[in-house]
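Aggregate trends can hide what the representation actually does to any particular protein. For completeness, the protein is quoted in full, as a sequence line and a line of structure tokens.
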Amino acid sequence: MPETTFIASSAQTMFSNATTTTGLGNWIGESNDANSVRRGMSKFDISSIPEGSTINSATLRFYANQNKSNDARTASAYRIKRLIIINQNTWANYSSGNAWQTAGGTGANDIDTTAIGTRAYSSSETLNEFKDFSLTASKIQEMITGGTFSNTGTAMFLTKMATEAADAYDHDGHAEGNPPQLVIDYTPLPTAGSGMFLSM
């Protein structure tokens, strides 16, 4: 039978090209405006999903409590390929002394080249509610224990605004109280003895 698990982010951060050698702390959000570009990262422990399970669907959720944009824009979520130390990452480095291939974490060795989820934001988003990114289930399948993705057992995502979203800033919730969530619907691999036997 399918099961659904709600996984709160175990760590999250935001970094900016305006402060290339320091992170912005325990916040999560993204922007692309005239002053700076900011990107957010979230980390989830998905090791509790049994090896061999089938991922039916996955949703990445951010709580929106600020919106400083009058523009419609699109945000995208990418799998992170680096085994980063999330409280050490900056615009320049994914961990202390280790540089991203491309500053800001968008090189082909840093993240997937194709987003695994997007969300269109209107010019007047409703606040104080979760905003959902529907993720590609097969990409999450690769991330669970026994999968082929390098960060198996740990799901790490980078979010960023589309480059055309000039003067747009959307802050997706402080980590305290409403951390990012990863909601996964999956079907565990049947175990020996889990079937039903009827005797007449």
